Automatic annotation (TrEMBL):
Domain of life: Bacteria
Source organism of the structure: Pricia mediterranea
PANTHER family reported in the protein's UniProt record: FLAVIN REDUCTASE-RELATED (PTHR15020), UPF0659 PROTEIN YMR090W (PTHR15020:SF50)
Domain NAD(P)-binding stretches: 8-184
Gene3D superfamilies found in the cross-reference section: NAD(P)-binding Rossmann-like Domain (3.40.50.720)
Pfam families noted in UniProt: NAD_binding_10
InterPro entries tied to this protein: NAD(P)-bd_dom, NAD(P)-bd_dom_sf
Name of the protein in question: SDR family oxidoreductase
């Protein structure tokens, strides 16, 4: 069983990730939290927590960790400090700890932020974080979902390196994709965009190899 650190575990998508990992026979989740009062939510689920801040030293957070999912976000308040530099800081710590795989939650359009009409600064920050991960030498998968919603997941998606248009996708399905990408051979060293679609998640990820 592999230990998976989830940065952003207390967020809406993060909680879905924790639940999926917690019900898995392959992974043990470790919830990275920024505030001590967030512990109770995870204690009830018997999920281990580690107190760490993306704007600070993260070496302790990755101790004993096999793989990492970065699902943190500043909600638009600190895009450079958290979404960009915080992600880079966790990449650095993961590299030192010889993490086996780093799965990054990014955003649709982050591969081409210069074309964005909206959220340009956010997409620039995500782009820089993604490129930093690509250049790190770590095994990685970068997941770039469309607009997130809180509807029940369908387990079916449309995946492409670059989609023609922005669509929506439930957070639950994004969480499933992030967990599926923990497999070493799944979407290996690949960045892709994803929205709701007609193809089962596991099959859609296999299509990326072709």
């Amino acid at each position: 069983m592999e230990n998976v650190l989830v940065a952003g575990a207390h967020g809406t998508t993060g909680k879905h990730i924790i639940n999926i990992l917690n019900n898995s026979k392959d992974y043990k989740p470790i919830a990275m939290i920024r505030k001590a009062d967030q512990k109770d939510f995870f204690n009830i689920k018997n999920v281990e927590t580690v107190l760490a801040d993306l704007e600070d030293n993260l070496s302790q957070a990755v101790e004993g960790v096999d793989k990492v999912i970065f699902a943190a976000g500043s909600g638009g308040e600190k895009v450079v400090e958290v979404d960009q530099e915080g992600a880079k800081r966790l990449v650095d710590a993961s590299k030192k700890a010889e993490i086996k795989k780093f799965v990054m939650l990014s955003s649709i359009g982050a591969g081409r932020p210069e074309k964005a009409d909206q959220l340009k600064e956010y997409l620039k920050a995500k782009h820089k974080a993604d490129e930093y991960l690509k250049d790190s030498g770590l095994d990685y998968t970068i997941v770039r979902p469309g607009t997130l919603n809180n509807e029940q997941g369908t387990g079916k998606v449309k995946v492409k390196k670059e989609l023609e248009s922005v669509g929506e996708i439930p957070r639950e399905d994004v969480a499933r994709i992030l967990v599926a990408a923990l497999q070493n051979t799944t979407a290996h060293n690949t960045a892709f965009e994803v929205v709701s679609g007609e193809v089962v998640i596991e099959e859609a990820l296999k299509e990326l190899k072709k």
